[in-house]
Amino acid sequence: MPGSIFISYRRDDSAYAAAMVHLHLSQRLGKDRVFLDERSIPGGVNFVEHITRSIADCALVLAMIGPGWGGRLRNDGDYVRLELATALRLGIPVLPVFVGGMDRVPAEQLPPELAPLVHQNGIRLRADQGLAEDLRRVDDAVEHARNAPAVLVAQGVEAYVAGRLDEAGALFRNAANQGDPWGQFNLGVCHATGNGAPQNFGTAFQLYRSAANGGCMPAQRALAELYDQGLGTDRDVKEAERWYRAAAAQGDTAAAAVLERFDAAHVPEGLDGEALFKRGEQALEQGYYDAALSLLEQAGTAGYPAAYAVMGLIYTNPRLQVGSAAHQWLARRDRYQKAAACFRLASRHGVLPEEGYLHLAYALDFGRAANEGERNEMVDAYRRAANAGAVGALQRLGELYLEGDIVRRDLSEAARWFQAAGERGDSRSREMLAVLYAYGAGVPQDFGEAERWAVLAGMEELASVVRSPFRRLPLKKTGPAGALEYIAELNRRRRADL
User: Fold this and answer.
1) Cα–Cα distance, 37 to 159 (Å, whole number)
2) What is the mean pLDDT of the segment spanning 224-241?
3) Residues spanned by CATH 1.25.40.10 within the chain?
4) Whole-prediction pTM
5) Where in the chain is the domain with CATH 3.40.50.10140?
6) H helices of 286-390, where?
7) Beta carbons of 299 and 280 less than 8 angstroms apart
8) Cβ distance 224 to 247 under 8 Å?
9) Residue-wise DSSP of 225-280
């Protein structure tokens, strides 16, 4: 268990002292935090493997050294030699505790791998009235070891995995305050996710940066991702690339994979607009959306305006949001505004195809056209796309005239556009036509037409009502008011189903 204490001793040399220290520390830390072989090893397990695992989780090893401690150390199978050599190999601190009149490590009896023990300061454990003071010194050493950053981080990870998030955050913060890069990184994760600390990307950014500068590989990639996405700091692609490269140089395969996107954006000088456009298309096919946007923008600037239309499609395509920094760092509205600007540039140069006007209209529509000029531009773009036969434009024009927010409400005009879209198979337009004919809103009331469109739209409830001789419509109001109320109810149901 991370942060525990391991007591190494010989039963024929210091068993009583070891048992006393075990009891003392168990009362302070809990029995599960103090390892004593005969009391801590479950039956039926491999002794050597269990000892090794236990030492690996420890904050400190107490080496109980009495008069007979060193005599068997040169035996290859000596378990005390195994315990202490394992601790030194793993970098676990070892504290000599002298008992039975001993006051030093017997250097002449040490095998080579235990030679570092000669230079370790130790504590004498006296049997007289000085015992309480000696145990306090042991307590101080234990507390110091347990507050070592590496131990705090290990305990924090254990608590995090177990779901004790507040405890984990406190342990990581303690390590981070000591300047430990891994403590800083893990505390940054807590702030980035809101688990174990208040969610704050600015704080996460600062912690990741400190840890990254300290050489912590996962912090370097995490910092690169924040720069890449503009979270907690201004977006900076060059800094993102720098830190991705730093992480990749330490063997981070995920960072190396991301770098392929940056490498795709690096092109030789002197390429013309068409060559840049082709490279942009290749980057897009590979899923490197940032690189594609950069190359396409260069192509447009170099006199290849068709690149602007492709840029607009990248910004508006919702399927490109996942894994694309270009979509992660832009708010939805900002993306559509950028898309509209790209489509405008393509239109201004006469290279926006007719179907492109539907995308321009969508970009203005979903970007919440901010002024009357943009709203008029949006309606004109829908009309141009509708005249080219775009079903989405036909249906959306019907909705605009039905809603009456962007253009003056005109149910006759709405029905005209819904009719054109419905005949081309648009289900939503067929629903609207069924309601308008049933209520006589914008079109003469015609139950036969209402039934036809309702059946095509799969509206069994409305179809059965209008074919019934009683024709009791679901809502009491008739005409435009009844139609609008029924449509509002349909929209509420649709939102509830979602």
Assistant:
1) 25
2) 89
3) 149-252, 267-388
4) 0.52
5) 4-146
6) 289-301, 306-316, 325-328, 332-348, 356-366, 372-387
7) yes
8) yes
9) HHHHHTSSS---HHHHHHHHHHHHHTT-HHHHHHHHHHHHH---TT--HHHHHHHH
Mean pLDDT of 158-162: 90
Q: Predicted confidence band at 498 (pLDDT cuts at 50, 70, 90)?
A: low
Over 50: is that where the pLDDT of 321 sits? no
Q: How far apart are CA 258 and CA 390, in angstroms?
A: 38
Tokens of residue 195, six digits: 């688990």
Q: Which tokens go with 108?
A: 């002449």
- Residue pair 174/183 in contact (Cβ under 8 Å)? The answer is yes
The CATH architecture one would assign to domain 4-146 is 3-Layer(aba) Sandwich (3.40)
Please work out, in degrees rounded to the nearest 5, the angle formed at the alpha carbon of residue 405 by the alpha carbons of 347 and 415. Answer: 85
HSE at residue 482, side-chain half, CA atoms within 13 A, is: 18
Task: Identify the CATH class of 149-252.
Answer: mainly alpha
For tokens 């070892």, what's the residue? 94
Between CA 309 and CA 159 the distance in angstroms is: 51
Tokens representing 364? 């203005």
Cα separation, 435 vs 399, whole angstroms:
13
* Residue count (the chain): 498
Residue 387 CA to residue 390 CA, distance in Å, equals: 7
Alpha helices in 162-236 (DSSP H): 165-177, 181-193, 201-213, 217-229
What pLDDT does residue 41 have?
54
Burial annotation 85-99 (CB, 10 A radius, 16+ → b, else e): bbbbeeebbbbbbbb
Determine the residue type at 140.
Answer: D
Superfamily of domain 267-388: Tetratricopeptide repeat domain (1.25.40.10)
- Run of H or E including 61: strand 58-65
SS3 state at 467: helix
Which secondary structure element, helix H or strand E, spans residue 97, and what is its range? Answer: strand 94-98
Nearest to 383, CA basis, from 410, 360, 367: 360
Question: Do residues 236 and 227 lie in contact, with contact meaning Cβ atoms separated by under 8 Å?
Answer: yes
